[in-house]
Amino acid sequence: MTVIGLPLLLLLLLAHMLGDFVFQTSAWVDERYEKRLRSKRLYAHVAIHGALTLVVLFLPLLTPGWTALSLIGFAAIIAVSHFVFDLAKSYTPPGRMSWFVLDQFLHLLVILLVWLEMTQQWVLLNHAAALVMNLQVLLILTGYFVVIWPLSIVIGMVCRQWTPEIEGLESLANAGKRIGQLERFLVLTFILIDQFAAIGFLLAAKSILRFGDTREKNHRKINEYILVGTMTSFSMTIAFGLLLKMLLGSD
Hints:
The chain has helices at 6-22, 26-35, 40-57, 68-89, 97-119, 123-132, 135-148, 150-159, 163-166, 175-192, 196-211, 220-250. By secondary structure, the chain is mainly alpha-helical.
């Protein structure tokens, strides 16, 4: 399947990234949270997005057959939607990852819809739906979901009996949970792509980083606690990954 107009989509995405991450400073973002509709930098930010979008859309090789008025209309849709989403985000708590992800998702969704309309590539939505309903894709998505979230609960229950013994020792809030989720994501990925040696390197790297600066005697308990959690995490993920790989191979 050949995707028509892919350079246009990539340039629209590049224009979005330039507008949001290059031509917008943290001071602009702070002012938007503080003044909201009264923020002059919010309007400047939207104007930059509109201008960048117009530059892309008016490249003649990318948008043949469209009138200038239509191209201005498409740019206006992207700019106005950007204004609405950024204004709504200014009413949310600043610095939250969840709101940032949702905001970017909505921006990119509008860009994608504009591109689909301009290139008449709506059939791609049918292909995407078929891909999501593919059994192997569903198995892989389910596998990642299991190792990232439910396994965290299981591992926490395994280690719970020792948790009171390490309470009070210095540690970043939820750092262990996040590290565990990332390591299980990587372990499952390595299994699915047949890179089992990389699992050993990952385990060695984590051992060096986590235990290299905790040689003091009073850190022995937390070292053992981390080791129990790490080995449980790796063992369960490897076993689950092998089972998932077997299911994928039998499909």
